[in-house]
Amino acid sequence: MAALTFELYARHHCRRGDAEPFVFGSKPLGGDLALGEGRSVYAPTLEGFVSKKREHFVAGRACLREALKDAGCRFDHWAPYKADYPPEMPPGFVGSITHGGDWALAICVPRSLDEVFLGVDWEPHPPIERARKLWSRVIDDEEASRLPSLEVSRAFSFVFSAKEALYKAFSPKALGALGFDAAKLIEAAAEGDEYRVTYRLDAKNWGPRDGSTVVLRARSLDEGAAALVVGEW
Ligand SMILES: CC(C)(COP(=O)(O)OP(=O)(O)OC[C@H]1O[C@@H](n2cnc3c(N)ncnc32)[C@H](O)[C@@H]1OP(=O)(O)O)[C@@H](O)C(=O)NCCC(=O)NCCS
Asked: pTM of the prediction?
């Protein structure tokens, strides 16, 4: 059930094509042929990872490879890895990966990085004690007052996933460090079973969108929170 709701979430966005014809692939962790192939493609990289990270990594890359195929990429692209960077994409495609809990997901758009920004994040709800401990590092009082009514660990993952998605979307053109205080939650409006969330990019390092507002799609599911941001510069 957990897997299904997240998959539906992603498919829903694909069908709606909010801003772009973006394409996604998602996979539960575990064994399938693509994952087996991925394990051998990335064997040297995987040596440096702990076992959970290995599973997440290969599943994320396999999702991206599928998404690229669906988006019209003509060759089989296993995206090269560089720590703390987005996956290396073929020319003419922008992509984003997330993994956490039992899931990995990737989204890509058949456009160039100079045309669009794209970030996706999936965040399992943390234990309440952890959410309380990290809260003030991620959410300030003003933002907290604008949150939808969610219990503490759900509220935390709701904001955390959104800020991580923003980071992924904008980091390729960022001019420096972007802490969690660099984006401020302005409004979260419920729209059916999701939220249309407005953030202000409130720092000097966001690059072309410094100081502007950006709208994300976000969802709080039983097993975690998901956020997606996509748009033109
Ligand atoms: C990079 C970061 C966003 C990853 O998020 P996460 O929730 O920890 O992990 P996820 O599984 O969702 O995403 C991991 C994927 O993000 C992608 N990623 C890593 N660095 C990235 C970057 N600089 N830009 C875009 N994507 C990046 C990678 O594809 C990675 O997967 P991989 O290691 O398998 O290649 C996070 O660790 C981070 O460094 N955050 C910086 C601080 C921040 O978020 N500030 C908020 C500004 S408001």
From this structure: 0.91
pLDDT band of 8, cuts 50, 70, 90: very low
Distance (angstroms) between ligand 1 centre and the Cα of 105 equals 13
Closest CA to 69 of 34, 17, 43, 100: 34
The pair of structure tokens assigned to 40 is 């051998």
Q: How far apart are CA 99 and CA 226, in angstroms?
A: 11
Test site for ligand 1: of 167, 186, 210, 212, most ligand atoms within 8 A of the Cβ? 167
Count of all residues that appear for the chain in the document:
233
DSSP 8-state symbol, 152: H
CATH 1.10.1200 fits 121-232, yes or no: no
Q: Return the domain boundaries, the chain.
A: 21-105, 121-232
pLDDT tens, position by position, 89-107: 999 999 999 988 877 788 8
Atom number of ligand 1 nearest to Cα 199: 48
Find, among 135, 143, 131, the residue nearest to 224 by Cα. 131
